[in-house]
Design a protein that fits this description.
The chain is mostly helical. It has one domain. It is 80% helix and 0% strand. It contains 4 helices and no strands. The structure holds protoporphyrin IX containing FE (2 copies).
Length: 132
């Protein structure tokens, strides 16, 4: 599967997960997990969708190993961060245990963004000529 499509599928998966949590919060009138909900949707759904669009619109034949690394790093970091937030805001595990994990996952999300910046700067798709 092409990388833009892979990002799209994962993005929609996060959207389903985030919306389920949103509906659960609304139905239970317990908004304790709203930070988790926000980041599943923003780091999971929105960022993955944006990365997919960047692949589709601005990247042509990017260095495959680097593009794959960027994909898996973002997904792994997003999953760990969202799971960590879920455990933290649901009071399932103490902050002292989760803090280093959340820290590493946050840096993972940031490195994913830096890798995407590098891919865009190094290998932009030539713009199609303007229509007359
Ligand atoms: C089925 C759809 C959704 C439901 C039922 C839902 C429900 C909720 C609920 C109950 C809250 C907590 C509000 C509060 O206590 O302040 C919330 C917060 C939030 N939601 Fe959703 N949501 C949905 C979709 C989305 C989507 C698609 C996004 C973004 C792409 C989103 C982003 C956010 C953000 C950023 C917050 C935190 C807002 C704040 O800082 O107060 N939500 N949502
Ligand atoms: C490295 C990744 C990120 C980290 C470590 C991070 C961390 C945080 C923290 C600590 C808060 C405050 C939570 C609280 O109120 O207790 C927050 C809030 C928020 N962040 Fe992030 N964030 C990240 C990425 C993003 C991204 C990519 C977006 C949007 C595209 C985003 C949107 C928001 C929004 C809307 C809020 C306010 C709603 C809320 O409190 O949940 N964040 N973030």
């Amino acid at each position: 599967m092409s990388l833009d499509r892979r990002f799209l599928v994962w993005a929609l998966g996060y959207a389903v997960l985030g919306m389920c949590l949103g509906i659960y919060m609304a139905a239970s009138q317990n908004h304790g997990e709203f930070v988790t909900h926000a980041h599943i949707l923003l780091i999971g759904f929105v960022l993955s969708l944006v990365y997919g669009l960047i692949h589709r619109l601005w990247l042509e034949g990017p260095a495959r190993p680097l593009a794959n690394l960027q994909f898996w790093l973002h997904q792994l970091a997003a999953l760990v961060l969202c799971t960590g937030l879920f455990l933290l805001y649901g009071n399932f595990m103490p902050l002292a245990t989760l803090d280093p994990i959340l820290g590493v996952a946050s840096v993972g999300v940031l490195i994913g963004m830096l890798l995407m910046l590098y891919l865009v700067v190094k290998g932009s798709k030539a713009r199609s000529p303007a229509l007359p």
